[in-house]
Design brief:
The protein is an alpha+beta fold and 386 residues long. The protein has a single domain, classed as FAD/NAD(P)-binding domain, CATH 3.50.50. It has 10 helices and 20 strands. The strands form 4 sheets. Strands 6-5-14-15-16-13-17-20 form an 8-stranded mixed sheet. Helix 1 runs parallel beside helix 8 and helix 9 runs antiparallel to helix 10. The radius of gyration is 21 Å and the shape is globular. It starts with 15 loop residues before the first strand and ends with a helix. It binds flavin-adenine dinucleotide. Flavin-adenine dinucleotide binds next to helix 1, strand 2, strand 3 and helix 8. InterPro entries: FAD-bd, FAD-dep_Monooxygenase_BioMet, FAD/NAD-bd_sf. Keywords: Monooxygenase, Oxidoreductase. It comes from Streptomyces lacrimifluminis.
Length: 386
């Protein structure tokens, strides 16, 4: 990791930031702040920074727009799989209709791109390391003590630091959120997802979603020339009641009711360790996302079921907006941090509500819902810069 002793020392008075959490939002904000010459320390709880769960990720244009700002678009484009439409199929694989995806990132970026999660994370890790941020893995913040001028932090390894600002990018179960007294907590939506990476059948060139089978949704997304990730969404069960050794059997049991390319995918659902089971949660902190000089971004402040594939996109946009405000002026007061919340909340609220609504229609068995209308309205809104 970067050793601050070998880096040129910043001029006295250079602002200092601690970023807690090295996921998409923490990495993105680190890269943007370092580019402006701000001193950034990043701590990540996991000793292995790229131990990402989940095999693939669907990135819409508005996420790609932020990745371009981060300087990694060319690599994302080379490693991922871009496409511009969404197919809806019957459980037997018959294509019912194909909808053009909206280019939320502008016409010079694809509407959608699938990517292997570890590849995206590695690109961001490499960019953080190249930025000169001081990174410490296997480290958390034990305590945060604020006064009018800054935040004193005691780390889990016993060391201490003092910062002008602390950014809590520590995800859905954010310890930072609790530490600053924000009591909102994630709630289950009633759904859960089985996911696996598999070789790409030649005919898979976009996301197809099947409704009407034993799962609420059976879908797949190409993540590179050679790979896809496939998923099945069902009613949430108590995770403790499912033996991880049976994960492949569980996913195969659901998958084998589907036709089209599913039999080919199902052949690869064999190793329980490669199958991921995750509950869908939602969270929206409506009130301010900061207390004093500690501010939340990403899943720590909001999270939605991935029915619109917008969680990471919203997290990356948070990083962009916060970095834009922090680099626009030196006095980082409550007014500035409130401006960040005010700029983000209407957009995030709309995305969380739409994502929840899509899931709820499925849970309630509503067949005639105007899903295309809701998706279209939401995606059109996301074309605007955050
Ligand atoms: C099943 C599923 C599918 C999804 N699919 C998509 C999709 O296709 N497209 C999309 O845009 N979004 C998707 N999302 C949402 C997306 O994964 C998240 O919104 C995104 O990862 C949030 O990024 P983040 O950096 O805020 O949080 P995280 O990715 O959770 O990162 C938080 C980081 O903080 C670290 N950490 C935690 N606690 C501490 C601590 N106390 N101290 C230090 N570090 C800590 C964690 O180890 C982690 O590295 C999906 C989510 C789920 C659950």
């Amino acid at each position: 990791m970067a050793d601050s002793r070998t880096l040129p020392q910043p001029p006295p008075g250079t602002p200092t930031v601690l970023v807690i959490g090295g996921g998409a939002s923490g990495n993105a904000v680190t890269i943007l702040l370092r580019r402006a010459g701000i001193v950034v320390d990043l701590i990540e709880a996991k000793p292995d920074w790229n131990a990402t769960t989940g095999s693939g990720i669907t990135l819409q244009g508005n996420a790609l727009r932020v990745l371009r700002e981060l300087g990694v678009w060319k690599q994302v484009e080379a490693r991922g799989y871009a496409f511009g439409s969404l197919g809806v199929t019957a459980p037997d694989g018959t294509v019912m209709f194909v909808a053009e995806d909206i280019q939320t990132g502008g016409e010079d970026l694809p509407a959608t791109l699938g990517m292997q999660r570890p590849q995206l994370q590695q690109l961001l890790i490499d960019t953080v390391l190249a930025s000169g941020a001081d990174v410490r893995l296997g480290t958390t913040a034990g305590s945060l003590e604020q006064d009018a001028d800054g935040v004193s932090v005691r780390f889990s390894d016993g060391s201490e630091g003092r910062y002008d600002l602390v950014i809590g990018a520590d995800g859905l179960h954010s310890a930072t959120r609790a530490e600053i007294g924000i009591t909102d907590k994630p709630e289950p939506t009633g759904m859960a997802i089985w996911r696996i990476a598999a070789p790409r059948p030649e005919s898979v060139t976009r996301t197809d979603l099947a409704y009407g089978g034993p799962a609420y949704i059976a879908g797949y997304c190409p993540t590179s020339e050679n790979t896809i990730y496939a998923y099945l969404v069902e009613g949430c069960r108590d995770r403790a009641s499912i033996d991880p050794a049976t994960y492949a059997d569980e996913m195969r049991r659901l998958a084998q009711s589907y036709g089209g390319v599913w039999p080919e995918i199902t052949e690869h659902i064999t190793d329980p360790k490669k199958v991921n089971y995750t509950r869908f949660d939602h969270l929206l902190v409506e009130d301010s996302w900061h207390r004093g000089r500690v501010v939340l971004i990403g899943d720590a402040a909001h999270c939605c079921p991935p029915t619109l594939a917008q969680g990471a996109a919203m997290s990356l946009e948070d990083a962009l907006v916060l970095a834009e405000l922090l680099t626009s002026r030196r006095d980082w007061d409550g007014e500035l941090l409130q401006a960040y919340h005010d700029r983000r909340i209407p957009r995030v609220r709309t995305v969380v509500a739409a994502s929840m609504q899509i899931g709820q229609w499925q849970l309630d068995g509503v067949r005639d819902a105007d899903m295309p209308g809701l998706v279209g309205r939401t995606m059109n809104l996301l074309k605007e810069r955050p």
